[in-house]
Amino acid sequence: EKRVYFFGGGQAEGSAKMKDLLGGKGANLAEMTSLGIPVPPGFTITAKMCEQYYKNGRKNSDDLVEEVEEHLHRLESTVGKKLGDKDSPLLVSVRSGAAVSMPGMMDTILNLGLNDEAVIGLQKSTNNERLAWDSYRRFINMFGNVVMGIPHEEFEKEMDKVKYKKNVEEDVDLDANDLKELVKLYKALYKKQTHEDFPQDPLDQLWKAINAVFGSWNNPKAIKYRKINDIKDLLGTAVSVVAMVFGNFGDDSGTGVCFSRDPSTGEKMFYGEYLMNAQGEDVVAGIRTPKRITTLQDQDPKLFQTLVDVKDRLEKHYRDMQDMEFTIQEGKLYLLQTRNAKRTGAAAIKVAVDMVSEGVISKEEALTRVTPLQLEQVFHPAIHPATKKKVKAIAKGLNASPGAATGQIVFSADEAEEWHAEGKKVLLVRPETSPEDIGGMDVAEGILTSTGGMTSHAAVVARGMGKPCIAGCKEAQIVNKKMVIKGQEFKEGDWITLDGASGEVFEGKLELKEPEIKGELTTFLSWADEVRIHSYRASKGLKGFGVRTNADTSTDAQRARDFGAEGIGLCRTEHMFFEEEKIKIFREMIVAADDEARKKALDKLLPLQQKDFVGIFEVMNGFPVTIRLLDPPLHEFVPKDDDQIKELAKIAGISAQALKNKIRSLHEENPMLGHRGVRLGITFPEIYRMQAEAIMRAACEAALKGVQVYPEIMIPLVGHIRELEIMRGHVEEVAKKVLQETKAKIDYKIGTMIEVPRATLVADELAHHADFFSFGTNDLTQMTYGFSRDDVGSFVPQYIQEGILEDDPFAKLDQEGIGQLIELGIGKGRDTNKYLKIGICGEHGGEPSSVDFCYRAGMNYVSCSPFRVPVARLSAAQSVL
Ligand code: ADP
Ligand code: MG
Ligand code: MG
């Protein structure tokens, strides 16, 4: 077994393909080395050794110790320097890196190998006293923090003392003597906090650092990050030990991060930031305000060109946008990291579409480059244009992550989590954020920081989360739970609005506007449709996999059409009844004393329903519309307060007391399993008959206007064949009557919802009387699991926390259990009728993993809420691919 992989001198044992073992960082360092890109030499300890470290009770095997030391010697001879040498010491960084990048979550230590002797050696060999002591103080700080857990602020305090004494603001203003002094203070601090002297043996330092990096795999923030990002099944972190190069060598040295395109918009432009005479994370940590990468062109055109060439090469090689770290030592460029850049949803789409037109990737590949989650981000709101015209920004920062958000100010991540738990919308407002804050960032609507640049922690994390973020808003002074902007004070709980796209901050709660589909997005989604419909059809000789929507009104239906829905998979008729006028007539119908009174009310309802349906058919011209007959228990519609009861009693011509009795008689102990769905149809066939008539009349009316209509009448909650048989009889009778009367020709279907577990077991029988099945997976999940949909909040979160459940089964279809019933139902249904049309209309229809399941199970379409239609289009295409 090989435990350690070397890279250096133009050759590497590893490669980019070995991310699982070497981590993204180690694998790409190896790859870049082989490509001949200037990378300091080093070696990578595999992630498997991290796994073993934990298995052995936080110890390393003798074999590993031996192999690491061998590689260390190889590194020493490659560089021609020795660790801890008192004349010319080798210094290394010890870096974490997992297979999936987790920026800032784990630890890295720089300048390892320095001690009281080696620091003199470094001074001599580089002829740079300041560099030597600057590196030593950084090392003690990082080692003390990462290995021994001394809070970083404690070191900051010592630094501030020295700065104060010297009366300077920035660390670059400290000279070698100041730094020497600082090293003394740091060592004293180290001793005070750990009761040990700062370790002088470089090998001892090395192993402590390696173990600390292994240990950082399981620090709380890393665990939380993996949870939030659903990262599972990794071995652990690899550890790369890399020879140091010095960005803090002087004014012709520096360090920076850059992207081959703009990670926020996807625009093809070189993008990045750097700082001269700085090391490691100074840029990201926002210690000084970094410079734009384009400034480097004026400063050192040749070096800039080298960097441009490298980024072009890397992007071409990896065939994707790169995020790179580099260091300049005495005018020479070194690359320290490259990876596929994290990006916003908008950037993901633009880069994918652009790379197709540049001929770098195929359309199919482009479709795999955007995750459904990223696509969802593009549908983030903006401040309503009409509102925006009227208001003036109170401050402007960097537009670090697009989208608009409005919420109440909180000043700490913990508070963000607390307020969020109380159901409040919060904006996290901080001087800067750090990896400890990700829990709070995750629940915040948006993030505002007063310091830091476009590559600061807040900016990077917010972009990944698809959240609006304004960084480096200098006008905002944030101290002691207060934010002051130009003299105006904002307290915790005050409302503000952020526009992450422009970087503007607004006072108060502004109206937001939902986004629309255009430009690259249209192109991208059309490719998704092409794959989903055409290539699939062509290759399998089958009909495409459709994406429909759940919509109850013509407005929702229109929005869904704009988002690309190909019909309605679920139109819930009862939602129409909740309008002011209709609910009154509907109530009259429910409480009717006799059949005649009920008929009178139904006659009034019919034209109203018919009108609604006409509107929907018009919008869905040419596409099928599945309409579900009345589903919820009747008592949901009855009035609750006395005034309404009095009014209704008057209309119904009965006493208030009689009405109250009637209402009481409708009460059910367990309404979700009670008198609802087809059971209402059986007991009050005239209700279903009225609805069927309204649908058919609407269809005829629309058809006469030239609209192509395909009504699909759906009977809910069927569990027994007789239920369906009887209701189908009623609906058919009404439909034939209407068609005879109007002489219209309508291609209509009658089908059923499959949502009672029994229905899946007798699906072969049901298929004799159904032209289509639609799986109502909300109820099917509720009834199969026996989890009340409305009460899962009280126990499912704990189930998830304890790992009993991986996901909420109402959000992600439970493929293992409920999935079996669905497959059974489909199989049995198609045994009876090979061409049975089958879809899903539960909330799962827009959730990517569930969409994939539906496709594999052989459904003809999924149906979901309008806003999820584009996500379903992409998920469906990705399933087909
Ligand atoms: P992270 O994963 O948090 O980015 P890294 O291991 O990439 O951590 O390192 C942190 C910082 O230190 C980065 O800016 C990186 O470029 C810099 N760095 C790491 N190793 C070296 C080295 N050998 N020489 C100079 N800078 C280094
Ligand atoms: Mg890095
Ligand atoms: Mg249902």
UniProtKB/TrEMBL annotation:
Domain PEP-utilising enzyme mobile, residue spans: 425-503
Primary enzyme class: transferase
Domain PEP-utilising enzyme C-terminal as annotated: residue spans: 545-878
Protein's UniProt keywords contain Metal-binding: yes
Pfam family, one: PEP-utilizers
UniProt xrefs under PROSITE patterns: PEP_ENZYMES_2, PEP_ENZYMES_PHOS_SITE
Keywords recorded for this protein, A-Z: ATP-binding, Kinase, Magnesium, Metal-binding, Nucleotide-binding, Pyruvate, Transferase
Catalytic activity, as annotated: pyruvate + phosphate + ATP = phosphoenolpyruvate + AMP + diphosphate + H(+)
Binding site for substrate: R572, R628, E755, G776, T777, N778, D779
Active site: H457 (tele-phosphohistidine intermediate), C841 (proton donor)
Molecular-function annotations in GO: ATP binding; kinase activity; metal ion binding; pyruvate, phosphate dikinase activity
Gene3D superfamilies noted in UniProt: 1.20.80.30, ATP-grasp fold, A domain, ATP-grasp fold, B domain, Phosphoenolpyruvate-binding domains, Phosphohistidine domain, Pyruvate Phosphate Dikinase, domain 2
Cofactors demanded by this protein: Mg(2+)
Domain of life: Bacteria
Catalytic activity, EC: 2.7.9.1
Entry's family note: Belongs to the PEP-utilizing enzyme family.
Function: Catalyzes the reversible phosphorylation of pyruvate and phosphate.
Protein name: Pyruvate, phosphate dikinase
Originating species: Salinispira pacifica
Taxonomic placement: Bacteria, Pseudomonadati, Spirochaetota, Spirochaetia, Spirochaetales
